[in-house]
Write a structure and sequence with these properties.
alpha/beta
Length: about 260
């Protein structure tokens, strides 16, 4: 049976600090292939190579991945500071209009970490440069030391709205997740609905209002252990179900 084709947004990287490449994490590829049951294709995150129009014409859905570089604050009307970290303006130039176009064309989309932040900025929202510097907030960043298993281990609970689409997908309004991010939502975009928070109030799960298909994003990394994790697995399965439903497939996410 022909599988839906999913574009996985890549990231710019210097191999051996010299050779420029576009990379995609194997865990995203595995989650799309093995759990969502779709064909994964890593997309170079650069509008000089590929257009939004080409992407929405040839792909059945998209995963907007995490990445070390952050969305440039100019995209939400603020000045860059050292706290904002490094940037990838080429990725900004592709992903932000692609998110809006995918929603317009009713294609399923899933945002992860930086992708979660891109969802918010794409619809007019803003970001805090460093969550851990805010009063009363915990450190959401990846532990600097340890194995991958330790870095991606469950760190805190997510409290979801009782009537949220996420609660329906997970079968619970409280789930445990990993945490590997520095930035977070400051002001939610015009069509961004926050449906889940960390215990310190940091937004962690969002949907796009009035999207005609799956348009969900999470601040954590569900691609890790996606085939076995009790939260990651149903999320990617729901994404896969939307992909197989085709363009404009019904997903009851409210208004």
């Amino acid at each position: 049976m022909k599988r839906p084709v999913v574009g996985i947004i890549g990231n710019a990287f210097l191999l051996n600090d010299q050779y420029p490449v576009q990379i995609g994490g194997i865990h995203n590829v595995e989650a799309v292939s093995h759990v969502a049951q779709a064909m994964p294709v890593v997309i170079p995150a650069n509008p000089n190579f590929i257009s939004v129009e080409e992407l929405v014409a040839h792909f059945d859905g998209f995963v907007f991945t995490g990445g070390r570089q952050n969305v440039h604050p100019e995209e939400y009307g603020e000045e860059a500071t050292p706290a904002h970290g490094d940037f990838d303006r080429n990725r900004d130039g592709l992903t932000l209009p692609l998110i809006r176009a995918a929603v317009e064309h009713e294609l399923p989309i899933l945002g992860i970490c930086r992708g979660f932040q891109e969802f918010n900025v794409a619809f007019g929202g803003s970001l805090y440069p460093e969550i851990r510097d805010l009063p009363g907030r915990m450190n959401h960043r990846m532990p600097p030391d340890g194995t991958l298993e330790e870095k991606f281990a469950h760190r805190h609970e997510i409290i979801l709205d009782d009537d949220s689409i996420f609660t329906k997908i997970f079968g619970s309004n409280r789930v445990m997740t990993n945490s590997l991010h520095g930035q977070g939502i400051k002001d939610a975009g015009a069509r961004v609905v926050v449906e889940g928070h960390a215990p310190d109030g940091t937004p962690e799960a969002i949907r796009i209002r009035d999207a005609g298909n799956f348009a969900l994003a999470v601040q954590w990394h569900p691609e890790w252990r996606a085939a076995t994790d009790p939260v990651s697995k149903p999320l990617f399965e729901a994404f896969g179900k939307a992909l197989r439903g085709g363009r404009g497939a019904a997903l009851h996410t409210g208004t």
